[in-house]
């Protein structure tokens, strides 16, 4: 996969500690500033664009075949908004992204992803830079807001099955978060859908990966890429 | 798949431009995706706002006008509209008497209308909301998204629209909408899959010689697949499914609805079978509407919606209506 756009040498980028024992700065000390979050959102927008057809295919199997197109439309609007007037704090980047998604995506994904990022952004406050631990805490707050809004919990075959383990693993490292999100998305395959349009299928929802969990894995995957 | 379109990206906007050109009595904002009655806000009248994904035409834009919706908000194809649209519509139709949102029960629609309600209330508009969830093919359960909103939406919008036109206050219009929804049930059958403009290929593969029972209106697969049945057999199965849930004690309103690609000749033949089954089951039919009203793009198939009527519901059903898709009594 192509790396994130922009200046790879930014002093602000975090480093993952997948190589235990190596003499590298601890992630918890990494300072993630607005520029890091802008690069993350840019990488996410490009990943969504690249993977749109796959997300739509997943949605066609158990939903209504529009997840990829909707997310692509939303992130195109996010890219335009962030490009026009880039916020100068991490929290503001996530909150603006969330608001644009709510105003452009529609479906369930718009309010759910919008709430995830708005709530996470709110949790980061107006600090100029945040640590990985703070981001993990913010993602947990955002994920909890998604669970409340959608009335879902882990195991219901939704985006929460990727997000909850990822937010927890982010305490450890960016790489662990990415792995947890991908494992979480894969784990939705044998699940019976209990929320959203897939739940109408009952038993026929079993055997398919949840499209929302798949796009959530992109969110966390691009976070890890941006931190490399 | 051949489609009468320019490019998939402009399908919704192109349709709205056509709606505006054909019906000058409507105020159509193509850019912001809101269809409003030309004379809104009507002094003293409760506003009735609905919306949902596009692809179900004439639902909802075709039901905007005197005696039915004050405004409709079309989303992308099969995708609920965004909160900004409904908040804008609410502001455009509110005369001070408040606004009722009619929401089909899908996760996306519910979430976006909830957010719109917050936005509208922040602007000082009094908003009530009614959920339509009539599809008996979906098992209602605390652990799922619940039954889908389908054909009963037409009954709810017609009755609530008539009540609002009579000058009923918000609480009354809401009560009418809720009562009609609670007394309505639907079941749908697909004879062919649906192709969205964006995807260009059918969302599910339905071999000829088979049909899909218990489908929704978004090309989502149904609950069960069977070898092809006759119109008579489909009517037996469909009406049975509805009556097992509804158990009406009096006359019903019947909507014999086409999914978009089934000819009216076939629909009328099917309607005759529906009447036959209802007669056999001792259920009198007070009114019947046959046609493509709550559609699913190019899906072949049909659905049956029954509403247990009473004098008030019949009066509201018969009340004058003047919209692109339904008009009588004026």
Automatic annotation (TrEMBL), chain A:
GO molecular function annotations of the record: glycerone kinase activity
Keyword Kinase: yes
Biased composition (Basic and acidic residues): 14-23
Gene3D superfamilies listed in its UniProt record: 1.25.40.340
Compositional bias segments (type: Gly residues): 1-11
Region (Disordered): 1-23
Ranges of residues in domain DhaL: 35-225
Keyword Kinase: yes
SMART domains: Dak2
Keywords: Kinase, Transferase
GO terms under biological process: glycerol catabolic process
GO CC entries: cytosol
Name of the protein this chain belongs to: Dihydroxyacetone kinase subunit L
Originating organism: Streptomyces pacificus
